[in-house]
Amino acid sequence: MTNNEYQALVSLLDDPDQDIFQQIEHTLITCGPDVIPFLEESWEESFNPLAQSRIENIIHKIQFDQVKNDLQLWQLHNSSDLLDGLMIINRYQYPNMNEDQVYYQLAELRSTVWRGLMYDMSAIEKVKLLNNIIFREFGLSGNTANYHDPQNSFINQVLETKKGNPISLACIYALVAQKLDLPIYGVNLPKHFVLAYMDEQSPQKVLFYINVFNRGQIMSEEDIYGFLRQLNLPLSEEYTMPCDNTSVIKRVLRNLISAYEHVDNHVKRNDIELLMNLIQ
């Protein structure tokens, strides 16, 4: 479709005939992201509230279709890259953000930790270094004041505000650690996502756990077992061993569903539920 054809379609978005509008909307949505600049330009030039509202909805539908497509492709071909999955979720709320800023901040954290690492450090000493850099120097912390804020689940906002929920903090911590070849992975503990530091000599053995929501507190196996017993849950590997990245992304999406329910945003809640269903 040519630029003139795009512009001709966009110019008809204020047509009061609902059937005509739906045909135009369908055509524009099938054009995909290429049509968004024309829609944005038309929105800026329009003084018609109906046309502006329709444009906003069409842009959202196009961007949401892209997020759904990207998430499905991620699960099929790129689920080994946790950060890519998190960035796809981020695009749902922030489709036009500068993603390079997220990569830059994570690289800076990684570089700072790397400068302090020494060969003969124990696992606990390495975690203490990570805790010092991530929580004390960078200032990351749990958002206890507004725990249910949806922004706690978007990695760009967590890095910007330095406030997050257990899983977003755990993701940042693990992403930094894994780039430094530290065997730290997410554990899908019910009610409270934590990290496990695995034994480098015996990769199927957990040395200890890390509670990132409590500034990197080190927890023993018995601490985790006690927590599970309080919840009347079995001491299964599902809750005590590292989970895969798809499970992490599902957990992020479940948190978002709960957060949008908490703020009564049913439209966004339903959108995120659709994303969840794509990777069941």
UniProtKB/TrEMBL annotation:
Family designation: Belongs to the UPF0162 family.
The Protein SirB1 N-terminal domain, residue ranges: 102-254
Pfam families: Transglut_core2
InterPro entries per the UniProt record, alphabetical: SirB1_N
Name the UniProt record assigns to this protein: Transglutaminase-like domain-containing protein
